[in-house]
Write a sequence for this structure.
């Protein structure tokens, strides 16, 4: 059954034929109008190559006072929603170009998706990375079937080298961009959510510089139901999308220093097409703090057993931070789009999130250096069900009276209420207890 578009004029206004600068893409084609039919065609063509990920009711719904459904795109083979756009882009290449091969220059989710799907389609694929790239990323791309080469100390060095190799050998240099083909592939997420969750009131997407998922999915959802509220979420540290929308053109100046944590959402705004679609079809863009993203990662790990990165958790972070009070009592879908968090970062993020959530706390107190006094302290902690993570004793540099010991203790509690109970119990027995503020 063909669905007649109710937003054809809106789409036509949103996407005109805009040539892309040569530095942003090597596809020598002008981006055409993205239509609902393009997204439907993409969904049909890639259905055998990507997962139809579940959109499941979340246990977090009661905690935040709304029906929350999580679209688990991190379950894709490479752990990222980028596979949808990449696969459709690769399948749309001319056979001659597929025979010659493609080349990318980064260690992003986009590059990993290219490495995997190009290999699956038997397209020669080369990935150029800088020498500072994490060894785990290099190993993953090689396991997907790509030829991985290290060149230069910066991402710019590897990009220049990749372009040179592409020109000399006839490879197609690919960089994440916002062509109609790529946006149509990403827009299939919106089609699936509309089918999986009836009577949706709102859908929350990650935004930031790479807002292709937001733009493409908004095109699909607004076509099917113009009353669905489309919301983008980005970081307060680099509100690239909000600044670009305000300026009316992509903002190339905003940069993120903490790129290893934020991943793909920390990039500059990469295209006018995505920006114009976002301006026309997206109802709201909000910004969240880094602390909210960490708490969101913790909630997803605890309640959904989902290990995601900042890009995957940033949508839920808007609900964690209370940025969208108008959604109380509504049916809301949140796209969890990426789960490629490096192991050393995972440990740091969870430890920091537990501290921010008032579930890991540290205090110091001075007790008499006599047999039994340490046992009394441990008895109080055991009675209050506090789990001791670390305990240290300082005797040499104690500034209080002689024959005393300073005890520095790190403990884990259940929640804020439990932490307050423990604090009161310790202050009652040790009035000079000092708590380390986070």
């Amino acid at each position: 059954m063909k669905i007649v578009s109710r937003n054809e004029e809106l789409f036509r206004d949103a996407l005109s034929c805009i040539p892309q600068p040569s530095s942003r893409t090597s596809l020598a084609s002008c981006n055409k109008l993205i239509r609902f039919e393009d997204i439907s065609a993409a969904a049909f063509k890639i259905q055998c190559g990507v997962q139809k990920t579940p959109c499941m009711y979340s246990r977090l719904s009661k905690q935040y006072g709304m029906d929350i459904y999580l679209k688990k795109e991190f379950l894709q083979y490479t752990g990222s929603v980028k596979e949808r756009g990449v696969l459709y882009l690769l399948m749309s290449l001319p056979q001659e170009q597929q025979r010659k091969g493609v080349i990318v220059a980064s260690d992003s989710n986009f590059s990993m998706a290219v490495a995997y799907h190009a290999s699956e389609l038997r397209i020669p694929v080369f990935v150029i990375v800088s020498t500072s790239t994490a060894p785990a990323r290099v190993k993953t791309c090689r396991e997907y079937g790509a030829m991985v080469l290290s060149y230069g100390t910066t991402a710019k060095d590897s990009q220049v080298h990749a372009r040179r190799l592409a020109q000399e050998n006839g490879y197609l240099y690919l960089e994440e961009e916002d062509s109609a083909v790529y946006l149509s592939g990403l827009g299939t997420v919106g089609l699936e959510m509309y089918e999986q969750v009836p009577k949706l009131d709102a859908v929350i997407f990650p935004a930031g510089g790479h807002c292709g998922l937001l733009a493409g999915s908004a095109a699909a959802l607004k076509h099917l139901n113009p009353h669905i509220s489309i919301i983008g979420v980005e970081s307060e540290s680099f509100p690239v999308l909000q600044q670009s929308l305000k300026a009316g053109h992509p903002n190339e100046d905003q940069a993120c220093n903490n790129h290893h944590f934020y991943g793909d959402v920390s990039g500059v705004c990469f295209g006018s097409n995505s920006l114009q679609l976002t301006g026309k079809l997206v109802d709201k863009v909000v910004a969240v703090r880094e602390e909210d993203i960490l708490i969101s990662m913790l909630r997803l790990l605890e309640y959904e057993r989902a290990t995601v990165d900042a890009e995957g958790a940033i949508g839920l972070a808007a609900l964690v931070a209370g940025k969208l009070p108008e959604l109380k009592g509504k049916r809301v879908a949140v796209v969890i789009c990426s789960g490629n968090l490096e192991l050393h970062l995972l440990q740091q993020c969870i430890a920091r999130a537990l501290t921010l959530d008032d579930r890991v706390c540290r205090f110091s107190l001075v007790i008499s250096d006599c047999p039994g006094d340490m046992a009394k302290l441990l008895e109080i902690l055991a009675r209050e069900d506090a789990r001791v993570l670390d305990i240290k004793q300082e005797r040499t540099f104690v500034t209080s009276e002689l024959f005393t010991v300073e005890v520095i203790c790190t403990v884990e509690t259940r929640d804020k209420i439990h932490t307050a109970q423990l604090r009161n119990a310790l202050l009652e027995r040790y009035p000079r207890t000092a708590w380390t503020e986070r």
User: Anything to note?
Assistant: Residues 1-31 have pLDDT under 50 and may be disordered. The radius of gyration is 25 Å. The longest helix spans residues 180-196.
